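In this section we walk through a basic example: taking a raw amino acid sequence and producing a predicted 3D structure, encoded as discrete structure tokens. The instruction is simple. Fold the sequence below.
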Amino acid sequence: QVQLVESGGGLVQAGGSLRLSCAASGRTFSSNGMGWFRQAPGKERDFVAAISWNGGATRYSDPAKGRFTVSRENAKNAVYLQMNSLKPEDTAVYYCAAHTNTWVSIYKHDYKYWGQGTQVTVSS
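The resulting token sequence is shown next.
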């Protein structure tokens, strides 16, 4: 069992930066591939970034490439999403997720555990 709690969301102006954190509990965290997803009002929950169990592999959605960086610290049971050059279209609730395998996955259905989400609002 893995429990996830996101933090770091907030209101930021376009062009600004935020760093989201995801605190995980559970003995198997270091064996889990992790992901970040986001959901804007009235839209589907979309993939943003993912990282393998040891940080050796990462994947990004096209909107996130070049602006967002996913990382993890297994010793701290934490995953991060550094978001730079934020745009109004990045406004959404951001969710941290863990799946039960070690590799990178961009697919929602691979993820078994989800956090409650943190709101990110980017003003123009």
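Looking at the output, two observations stand out. The chain is about 0% helix and 50% strand. The chain has a mean pLDDT of 95. In the next section we compare this with other chains.
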